[in-house]
Amino acid sequence: MRQGRPSKSARPFHGGRNHTRPPRDPSGPAILYGHHSVVEALKNPRRQFRRLLATENALKRLQEEGIPVPQIAEVVRPGAIDRELTPDAVHQGLLLEADPLPALSLDMLRDDALVLVLDQITDPHNVGAIVRTAAAFGVTAIVTTARHSPEATGVLAKSASGGLEHVPIITVRNLAGGLEELGSRHFQRVGLDSEGETSLPSVPLRRPLALVLGAEGKGLRQKTRTCCDVLARLDMPGAIKSLNVSNAAAIALHVAASAA
Q: In the CATH hierarchy, which fold is given to the domain comprising 106-259?
């Protein structure tokens, strides 16, 4: 475990904290920061680590919690981590670079799977919150597209609070094609739509089940809607009828967990 500041050769791949960051290399490592995100990654035997920066206090906390600390860990001052991230990043003294998790495909899903399908949800905070909720409900996987979706790193990983280590993300080239493949595998495909013909609790849900969520504002695209077996709505009793997509996902998963 090395003491002191990281060497220049190991220093920022992002650019300084107060400078414009260049576009991220999509083939580069996943960037995980914050206590929960880093701890869950360190406990995940499928993760391959490249670099870990930790403050003395953060490292002490890891050791007190019995979290395995890799030999690559570098003890640094908080400012060294600050310079790697954006000004609003709350890193809690931990920054981990790791290889992306092994990719999965739709044909690897179990016959009793519960999956979430995300239709062009681009906000990493929302997707991260959905991942966190999915981990809490034991979701088998999240299906999304390579385009029009955030990478499983940085802000998304922080918002997921460790959920990325427990819920695989399956990336498909075309969402409609992915939904058709799920249909061929006898998945019940339920699209959440405010104009749905029936309320979600009234739908006789069964496994394998795919809950399909659209972006806030736009909702489900027309092609996505046609690939669903049923469109269901969430009836809200209060004055505000619409929900943040991550909150809608939580309610839908609660209904699904109770019924399917």
A: Alpha/beta knot (3.40.1280)
